[in-house]
Write a structure and sequence with these properties.
Blueprint lengths: L1 H15 L4 H10 L4 H22 L2 E4 L16 H11 L5 H16 L9 E8 L6 H15 L3 E6 L3 H16 L6 E3 L14 H4 L6 E6 L3 H13 L9 E6 L11 H10 L3 E8 L20 E4 L6 E2 L1 H5 L19 E3 L2 H7 L16 H20 L6 E6 L4 H6 L1 H13 L4 H17 L12 H5 L2 H7 L1 E5 L15 E6 L12 E6 L6 H6 L5 E2 L8 E4 L1 H26 L11 E2 L15 E3 L8 E3 L2 E2 L3 H21 L2 E5 L4 E8 H10 L10 H15 L4 E7 L9 E5 L2 E4 L5 E2 L5 E2 L22 H11 L4 E8 L22 E2 L7 E7 L13 E4 L20
Helix pairs in contact: 1-2, 5-6, 9-10, 21-22, 22-23
Amino acid sequence: MADEFDSMYETFRALLDVFPPAESVKRLEQLGISPDIVQRIRDRHEQQTVWIRNLEEPHVVVLGNRDTWYTGPQTKDKCWPAVVDHLRRDGWSRDPAIARLDESSTRVVSLLNHPKERSFTTRGLVVGHVQSGKTTNFTSVMAKAADRGYKLFIVLAGIHNGLRRQTQARLVEQLVEPNPSMWSQLTGLDKDFTPQENPASYFGKSNKTRVLCVVKKNATVLRKLARWLEKASDYLEDCPALIIDDEADQATVATKSINPLILSIMNTLPRSAYVGYTASPFANLLIDPSAEDLYPRDFIVSLPKPESHFGTEVLFGRYALDGDDPDWVDDGYDMIRSVPEGEVACVRPLSRAKVEGFEPVITDTLRRAVEYFWLVTAARRVRGTGNPHNTMLIHTSVNTAVHNSFKKPLELMCDDTASALNSEELRSRLRELWEQETARVSAEEFGERKVEFEELSAYLPSVIDHCRIVMDNSSSEDRLDYENGPVVAIAVGGNTLSRGLTLEGLSVSYFVRAVSAYDTLLQMGRWFGFRNGYADLPRIWMTDELAEWFRHLATVETEMRRDIDVYMTEDVTPLSFAVRLRTHPALRVTAAAKMRDAVTAASAYGGQRLQTHYFHTNADWLIKNIDAARTLVAAAQSISSKIDERTQEGRYVFHDVPHDMVTGFLTSYQFHESSSNTSKLIVDYINKRVETADSLRRWNVAIVGTPQGKPDNDFTFALGVTVGRTIRSRLDVAGPADIKTLMSPRDAAVDLDGYKTTWVEDDYREQRQVQQPDTGLLVLYPIDKTSAPAPRRAAAQAPLRKVKGRVALDAEEHVIGVALVFPEPTAGDSSVESYISADLSKVPLEDEDYGFLDNEDV
């Protein structure tokens, strides 16, 4: 069946090469293909088109939609061609990758001011992905700006010496060394900024060289730079400057020392462009736009996710957003392994009082993670491809004393393992571990060949012998050094490893660090990035709670980027819109000081579909929800003006139910605590809309099950209201039972007349607006407590997405799922407190110019 559908889809794609989409659809119908199949073909084509567009196109918001002065590289350029040559030598042999980099960096440069303008101050933000090549992008931007006449380049490279040195080295290698006569340097590999004599030698009109300065975001360093630039002010009139703020959300926003110093440096430069780069822009998007600060008032660019990049969604999956086809939402690769909560106290002190004298225990999961790292390293030696380095990350605490306490236990484990490698017991355990892990993630799926245990075992003695235990933190002298030959290292650390710095060849992570904010959590994920040659092998050990937080964060990222995309198409600017950031019940978006100017976003449930997908499986919790559902159905049955019975479909619809019955049910029904929507938020929204817009006073309550007739499968809601139970297996992931998707698109039209199988999302919305403009829909699903999964569909049906395995739900009682469909918002629609954004209310609006009314010559 899958092969037949794929064949029809290929026919459609062939038609698209000749005819427009509408004509191609007509020709499919003329071939006798059923409307349902035609719709499936259209859906797949649309999803693939969106997926490809998101990969290839940077999304931009531009101030005033101004015309750009920069249209791309020219033949006379020197810096950008040198960058391209370096990338090709470094393995960027694929022209499409360089073409995408060229396109996205050109877009950023096009948003800067022309360097010959008399004066300007630009503030922009570039949103990338963690470990996705942001440095390469801003290096390309600097190269193109240098080719066009920008003269001073200040790079704010994080807060640690390691990242500053790494950034300096890369910029020297890619910008300075290919064109040494074009550049002067104010900083060096081992030297942060120190004041230079004679500023005229750098900025005078007779000096045509570009000036590079790579500094830490350190108050002492920035103060020296600011004072020196003030002394050089006589020479800066003709010095267009580009300030690149790497990790722009760190230290830059809402700090008493660093933030004013950056602004001070900008104030000394008559022509300056500030561009922040970050993968976690939450703090930057919440800066007060009305203040003289670094809110990205001029532009926001969202870089496309590079091909083969391991990002949040790729590893952890995400939740479906309103309008998504749930079957196309990424589930993430099966690479996350659970650390039981009971083991956390063995690897991390649970309070400050327990830090002193803490001694970690090599728990079962930590031992398994370390042994798997050695196996991966050996397997990579068999393959002999990709990055020559091999690194494992252990991150359990921010405290340096805790990091140091791991050294002896890990070294002892190395010694014990090396001496026991010939024992049958150890070899049997390692073989079993390797077979289990390689069975869960197929090497062939990533274009790799599976390495057999017998092949890698010969390399294990050398791997363990060369393995270093590195304590990389602010108090240690030991550091990861990738410049002196291939490295095999288990790195134990905290903040020095949690942002910006690349862990080369990272394949295994053990992460149980307690965090409280989105940006902190995201930046600690050093496992993001590229894994060429070993993309099938990375694994992450973490608690179930942390895994759920990362999944939520992937959803936040997707929604944030959609906001940037949507507002771009609506001809607005960063000063007339604010990107919404979805909140979480247990996590802050960013540090409290960085959110002090944020406001609840003007976001409401109008036009949205909400559905439960998290559930507890214990009987007490489930029985309360069953009782709440039965109470609602009995009440609706007694008061409904019209009952639509479709027993042959397992469906009932009770029309015209008062809103207080619905809010009463929602108050009794228990949403899982991991849900971003709570009964209070939803009930408050309904009540506000009733009061302010005279809408949502009436509801339709539907039941969606399967046809009754099998006594062992029937579920009774009320007298005469019985349907068969539905099957919703759970994802094979740690944590709460997650069924991922409850409602099908068809269910959202269960109370509408004239339903057609060819309806798409716009049709549902249009028909609801026509038929039920002020009426809400609540749908109840009786879910079978066992819900064994159906056989997995062929991968050919969904070539662009990953499908996590499914397991039986195995709840102690049957489960009640709930979905709500809200009509489109009205003028009186009220906001809910599940999003925050920057406060644009204090931004002064430009008055329209009516002066021409007094001008007779107009």
